[in-house]
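Incident log, support desk, overnight shift.

02:14 A customer reports that sequence design results differ from what the structure should imply. Their input is reproduced verbatim below. On-call engineer (initials T.W.) acknowledged and began investigating.
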């Protein structure tokens, strides 16, 4: 009989440990979700700023930049070869 009581106590102890771990993991999950939302908002703001930079540049300026980049790439390629 004492053996059964000992096993029940052990089982209760393990069950309590599992409950504590589950509660801890739920809290961590909640914190991570909150952090994920914060980082998602931060990323969206950064992407909007990035989009705004390019929308402010006129088409002719974009073409000029593209030409400059291609020219630099060509010079680098010639230098490497």
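02:41 Re-run completed on a clean worker. Output:
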């Amino acid at each position: 009989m004492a053996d059964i009581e000992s096993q029940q106590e052990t089982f209760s102890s393990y069950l309590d440990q599992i409950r504590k771990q589950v509660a801890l993991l739920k809290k961590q999950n909640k914190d991570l979700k909150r952090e994920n939302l914060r980082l998602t908002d931060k990323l969206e703001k950064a992407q909007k700023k990035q989009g705004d930079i390019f929308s402010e540049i006129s088409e002719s300026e974009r073409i000029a930049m593209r030409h400059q980049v291609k020219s630099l790439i060509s010079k680098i390629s010639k230098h490497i070869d």
